[in-house]
């Protein structure tokens, strides 16, 4: 497989075949994200993609494909359908195809177009929501509002595609932590995703967020402040049936739970850890990473 630049995927796609169909991210403006800085976005040619799919015919142990990089859904509809068709033609054992997406790429497609993609085999979409607070979304240059995030989430689900969203603990800093947490719980409730993951923001040198940190315009909450945010997010999250996790390597307290069934049990655990103020109950710093 021929990969260009940095290729990333969600934790749940660890066992997936990574098929790079775009290079970089079409948005690439988020203040916290270092991944594609300095990379020029482009859509790979059908010839490049077909060459990788042909090679993948030798890898029959994969059952899932993840379309990289940051935003494969920005690809024009007809070309994207050709890619999905090629996967199913040459790799008929593949059971699931997933991709990252952003608000811009989803809202450029109609509900009918998304339904066609779902029927063609696109099974799951990962959407970075980050926060439900409009002020924070503007500050981090997410390129979308609360309402657009909700509209995007609904459009994906209405197309019959599984929706997994991520939010970021700490992205509002100390000053806006509770506003961020409250509004993030609200937006999760309104989107009602199938999966939701809370990651902890990692401030990486070279990003605008790092510059804000070093110039004292942004202060990251401590470990228990981040747990308090997680608690408030969950308190304000009311969903029909969602698998909620905060077990990413960046998090201090791993959580895996079905909501609403295990919501109160999860909250009891978080409150107990916060009340203890015992850092030994948290993931140690040397084990935390992007």
What does it look like?
There is one protein chain. The protein is of the alpha/beta class and 290 residues long. It has a single domain (11-287), classed as Aldolase class I (TIM Barrel, Alpha-Beta Barrel), CATH 3.20.20.70. The mean pLDDT is 95. Helices cover 37% and strands 17% of the residues.
Text of the CATH class: Alpha Beta
Instruction: Find the count of extended strands (DSSP E, 2+ residues).
Output: 10
| Order of helix and strand elements from N to C terminus | EEEHEHEHHEHHEHEHHEEH
Q: What share of residues is helical?
A: 25-40%
Query: Roughly how many Å is the radius of gyration?
Result: 19 Å
Low-confidence stretches: none
Q: What general outline do the C-alpha atoms trace?
A: globular
CATH architecture label name: Alpha-Beta Barrel
Class by helix and strand content? alpha/beta
Please give the largest β-sheet.
8 strands, mixed
What is the number of domains?
1
Mean pLDDT: 95
Spatially, the strands of the biggest sheet line up as 1-4-5-6-7-8-9-10
How many helical stretches? 10
End-to-end CA span: 24 Å
Find the CATH superfamily: Aldolase class I
Q: Beta-strand percentage?
A: 15-25%
Which features does this protein show?
290 residues; alpha/beta; TIM Barrel; eight-stranded mixed β-sheet; 10 strands; 17% strand
